[in-house]
Amino acid sequence: MTIQRIKVGSRMSQVVIHNQVAWLAGQVGLNAPGESVAAQTTDILENIDKLLTEAGTDKSKLLSCTIWLASMDNFEEMNGVWDAWVAEGETPARACVEAKLAAPQFTVEIAAIAALE
Predict the structure, then answer these.
(1) By Cβ atoms counted within 10 A, which residue in 3, 22, 51, 80 is the most buried?
(2) Residue 78: its pLDDT value, please?
(3) CA distances from residue 102 to 42, 46, 49, 108 in whole angstroms, order as listed
C-alpha cells in the first residue's frame, strides 16, 4: 500500500494520495484573512488549483467538495465565485454547511477530493 503526502506539517498534510485519489485538507483564505467572502473563496480556489496540480490532477477530476461558511447569509456570494471556477459539466458532489471556523478572520473553508486518473 502506497500513501503519498504533499506539504506535510506537524498537524496535517495538505494533500494525501492513495489508490489514485487525492484528499485535500480544508483550505482557508490565508492570503485574504478578514476580506470578503468572495475574496476568500477566490484565494481558496486558487490554492486548491495549485494543490491539485501538485497532486497530478485538476478541478475537472473533482469527486467531492465540502464547503463550510461562517454564515449561510454568504451562500450566494460564495457561489458567485464557485460557479465561475468549477469546470462546466464536471461539477463534483458537494455539501455546504454553516459552521464556526477555526479563526474569526476566516469565513469560508473548502475541502476537496479528486481522482488522479
Answers:
(1) 22
(2) 98
(3) 19, 20, 22, 10
